[in-house]
From TrEMBL:
<dbReference type="InterPro" id="IPR036390">
    <property type="entry name" value="WH_DNA-bd_sf"/>
</dbReference>
<protein>
    <submittedName>
        <fullName>Rrf2 family transcriptional regulator</fullName>
    </submittedName>
</protein>
<dbReference type="InterPro" id="IPR000944">
    <property type="entry name" value="Tscrpt_reg_Rrf2"/>
</dbReference>
<dbReference type="Pfam" id="PF02082">
    <property type="entry name" value="Rrf2"/>
</dbReference>
<keyword id="KW-0238">DNA-binding</keyword>
<dbReference type="InterPro" id="IPR030489">
    <property type="entry name" value="TR_Rrf2-type_CS"/>
</dbReference>
<dbReference type="InterPro" id="IPR036388">
    <property type="entry name" value="WH-like_DNA-bd_sf"/>
</dbReference>
Length: 154
């Protein structure tokens, strides 16, 4: 699975907003978001347009303006952010996994693609911005992290 720069930047910026929400501070400017995580400002503006359209952030104009989460950080999942900026979690040649169909020896391959999507959903939809911010990750994620080869490249 390839995690795009858009998703990486979006999650990192949303964590800044989650932290601001936890501290009870107001909206955060694009400049502050870009500076805190060393993100490209123009790219971040485009990402936040997608996040706003998806209803994940609210924007306020003016000198004290910026962006804030639309809901508490515990109610926004990493999966929602992923979909807002990059589309579906899993696609096979532009199709949803359950829309694929093969014959012969590949007859059962759609089942594998659906299982891959289900595992992504379990991790990404089951992990909130608050859990990421605090490090209090869901049990399923913690178990995956302790697998013997979890941190090794293959």
């Amino acid at each position: 699975m390839d995690i795009s720069a858009r998703v990486d930047y979006a999650i990192r910026a949303m964590l800044i907003l989650a932290d601001a929400a936890a501290r009870g501070s107001g909206p955060v400017s694009i400049d502050t978001l870009a500076t805190q995580q060393d993100l490209p400002r123009k790219f971040l503006e485009a990402i936040f347009a997608d996040l706003r359209r998806a209803g994940l952030v609210l924007s306020r104009r003016g000198a004290l303006g910026g962006y804030a989460l639309s809901r508490p950080p515990g109610e926004i999942s990493a999966g929602e952010v992923f979909r807002a900026v990059d589309g579906p979690l899993a696609e096979v040649r532009g199709l949803r996994p359950h829309e694929t169909s093969y014959g012969g020896v590949a007859l059962h391959l759609p089942s594998l693609w659906v299982a891959v999507r289900a595992s992504l959903r379990e991790v990404l939809d089951g992990t909130s911005l608050e859990a990421l911010r605090t490090g209090d990750l869901p049990e399923t994620v913690r178990q995956l992290l302790t697998a013997p080869d979890a941190w090794r490249s293959r």
